[in-house]
């Protein structure tokens, strides 16, 4: 049975969201909102793991990624419908931030945690390589090509081009889900590590916890359904409260003289917190494959679901829809692709590869603030 707090916090957060939505908040209320936001993140991780345990891997690792992305899409469309000069590039900035944070930040942190404890992080190159190739292709079609096409002025796509990008994104994502969960499911399962413990080493607390989880009975259908509903509630609370706090974040960013894109990056960091915590927790248990499934699956879902949704929403949206990346962003994406391929190919990574990915993520965050 889940701890009572994992049930109470999402419900309290939803109630708080309804109470504070659209209102100016004093400082004490802001602190309460931030506390509920953090609690909802932890609750989301717990309930995602319950559902994942019920449905099994690798399908379980998709639950959190898809749930977060669906709500992220709703948040993007809501902000774009509200208008304003800064919303024309909101979809591009949010999707690109998600790709950089997941492929370098979450993946790098997961590899680092495992490599520090096991010296080498071991994963399946077939499944991880297929996921990375899909992410790179989706990013190139949706975010790079609009910079170079000539059908529309600026980094935009014409109507037919946008339809093609949306259909291609949806088809590739749907096909990947089928491959991951049906045809080649074994490519995305954790790799068994031979000689996991040296003869003179005692199992750690994380090892014992992982062993207990692996042999624990799966939750009942009723418990899994309850956790699924609470997961959705927690994610709605996370995104909703992040939207509530976005005004404060925007004021701080504007006051500091930083670019408008920093607001999108900050909100993306908040939204991706549940996946980050879940990925790190799996990495500590020597299940880095699940961590990589979460990271790359989140990047893929962010593009594969956001672009089709934005294409449909563009019928009602006013103003331009800027999707093409700038030169600095394209360089960072190309660097991510090249380093990612070199990391994935051997199926093994050390602290060096992990630190390289984290350095790219740090460069993205720094250049977003100081372009």
What do you see in this structure?
The protein is an all-alpha fold. It has a single domain, classed as NCX, central ion-binding region (A middle domain of Talin 1, Up-down Bundle). 75% of the residues lie in helices and 1% in strands. Strands 1-2 form a two-stranded antiparallel ribbon. It starts with a helix and ends with a helix. This is Ionic transporter y4hA.
Secondary structure layout plus pairing:
Elements: H1 4-20, H2 27-55, H3 59-81, H4 90-118, E1 121-122, H5 125-148, H6 159-183, H7 205-215, H8 221-255, H9 261-271, H10 273-284, H11 288-313, H12 327-344, E2 348-349, H13 351-369
Antiparallel strand pairs: 1-2
Helix pairs in contact: 1-2, 1-8, 2-3, 2-8, 2-10, 3-8, 3-11, 4-5, 4-9, 4-10, 4-11, 4-12, 4-13, 5-6, 5-11, 5-12, 6-11, 8-9, 10-11, 12-13
Main location: membrane
Transmembrane segments: 32-52, 59-83, 95-116, 128-149, 161-179, 223-242, 262-280, 292-316, 322-344, 351-370
Subcellular location: Membrane
In the CATH hierarchy, the architecture is Up-down Bundle
Q: Enumerate the strands of the largest sheet in spatial order, edge to edge or round the barrel.
A: 1-2
Share of helix, binned = over 70%
β content, as a range? under 5%
CATH class annotation: Mainly Alpha
CATH topology: A middle domain of Talin 1
Q: How many strands appear in the DSSP assignment?
A: 2
What is the residue-mean pLDDT, rounded to a whole number?
83
Q: Which consecutive residue ranges, at least 5 long each, have pLDDT under 50?
A: 195-202
The helix tally amounts to 13
- Number of domain units: 1
Q: CATH homologous superfamily name?
A: NCX, central ion-binding region
The helix-and-strand class reads mainly alpha
Quaternary class: single chain
Q: In one word, what is the shape?
A: globular
What is the radius of gyration computed over CA atoms, rounded to a whole number of angstroms? Answer: 20 Å
One letter per element, helices H and strands E, the order comes to HHHHEHHHHHHHHEH
The separation of the N and C termini measures 48 Å
Largest sheet: 2 strands, antiparallel
